Amino acid sequence: MIELAHELANDMGEIHNSITKGSGNAAGFLGEIAIRKYLGAPPMSTKNYDFIYNGDRIEVKTKRRTVRPLGHYDVSVAKTSDHQRPDWYCFLSLEFGREIDGRYYDLKNVWYLGVLSYEDFWNRATQWKKGQVDESNGFVTLVDMYNVPIRELKFKDGLHETYT
User: Fold this and answer.
1) Count of beta carbons in the 10 Å neighbourhood of residue 6
2) Domain residues of the chain, as ranges?
3) Does the CA dihedral 146-152-155-159 come out positive or negative?
4) What values do phi and psi take at 104, rounded to 5?
5) Distance CA 147, CA 46 (A)
């Protein structure tokens, strides 16, 4: 999966409006490949969603981290992606052993964090402006984005929502 993700990222190159100027493409592809494999969903990608599962349009959002994701951490959708109209956002985190100068090494875990419907995400999201600093970890927001805490995501085997 990692090799395929790197191949797809290299083929794609830098995409317009990329937050990380293309450096996160392999992570994004790895998240998409991992969840599709888990669900048994076929490959597919469009501008507005990543694949279809049980008739629903799914958009995968993946973050790279060097720590295990916790409930108070956020998942995000960049303002540059607000043109997308999936039925569901599916959130994953890739946990790496280390990060050096924005490059991540030693993949440890792929975390399926949960889902939110399109409407639910936008109803719950808080906007963070470019340059805003997250005081809990020192992260400086690279672009305007919308965040929801992981603890607010819904999870069930597969992608259908349940409340806990």
Assistant:
1) 14
2) 42-152
3) negative
4) -110, 140
5) 23
Distance CA 81, CA 86 (A): 11
List for the chain the helix, strand, coil content (%; round to 5): 25, 35, 40
Task: Report the C-alpha gap between 78 and 54 in whole angstroms.
Answer: 26
Integer Cα distance of 44 and 46 in angstroms: 7
| Chain center to CA of 115 | 10
Structure tokens at 78: 């960049």
| CA dist., res. 51 & res. 32, Å (int) | 9
CA 83/CA 109 separation, integer angstroms: 30
Please give the single-letter amino acid code of residue 155.
F
Provide the whole-model pTM.
0.83
Each residue's pLDDT tens digit, 75-123:
999 998 888 999 999 999 999 998 887 778 889 999 999 999 999 999 9
Separation CA 81–CA 53 (nearest Å): 20
